[in-house]
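Posting for a labmate who doesn't have an account.
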Amino acid sequence: MRRTIGKYVFPVCVLVAFVSGCRQVTVDKVTAAYGLSEGPHWDHRTQKLFFVDIQNQYIRRLDIATGVVTSAYIANGTVGVVIPVDDSNDELVAGVGKDLVLVKWNGDEDDSEPKVKMLCSLEPPQAETRINDGKVDSTGRFWLGTMGIEVNGVAPPDLGSLYRVDDNLKPEKEISPVTISNGLAWNSKDDTFYYIDSPTRQVAAYDYDPNLGKISNRRIVFDLNNTDLKGVPDGMTIDTDGNLWIALFGGSHVIQVDPKTGAVMRKVKIPADNVTSVTFGGPLLDTLYVTTSGYNLTAEQRELTPDAGAVFAVKGLKTRGTLANSFVKMD
């Protein structure tokens, strides 16, 4: 059902390193509260925000001009990530279950049975895993990570991997094993790749070769264990200054981190415990869109955080993001 969401503003203070006092930003609720909202992707061509509702098996699209959210139900399985196809107005590539699929949906109306075409499987059918997050790099390769299917709310250790899918649609395993493959980002020079395996509570950096799509020389650039912050790092994006913005699942915050020093530069409180991912969007790429989870909450948690599962727009950060890459479909 299509619905329009009114603005709900939360004033918060952002802690700025080396600056006395605090700067006020606003956090606006821009969608209804769904389930496990994740994977925000700003499509600069249409000025729309795509995101997924993993366990409820939806691809959702927010029109920021009207506040209207439309949805496509994917019967094939959980939806971990979705990216629009370049030079197309009605095709998306999504990580569904363990598979990469092509979805036909223009986003203008709800669709309970969009056309879905199988592209490739990341892991064998017997694997107790699912795709959890992913992004497309500057040359059109799709990087997707997997995780073990949760048992009593906990992901089994070391069942996941990070894959690279080139234009031949043959997955190549790049990092393994991992437990919960999550946030990814590349710097503006396209020579560094950042990656999160959530339970480690760390952000790793790798040298990146954009021509070959290869990573090497792993090192840790941020360790949440060295802070007093709660939760684990989840989704991640990067701004034009090269700083990382990281969602803290179980931590009620988004933090800005300088990967050169490992310092937390700013933190923004979000009105939900489980903050799942972030991306910059809007006409000037200066709004930080934040997804959250309302999945598996107790009645008490739901009462305390009724907006968990909604998407929020953070404004007033005085920084901008970079354009997200669309998927380049080969003939």
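Reply:
Got it, the structure tokens are right above this. The CA atoms of residues 3 and 103 lie 23 Å apart.
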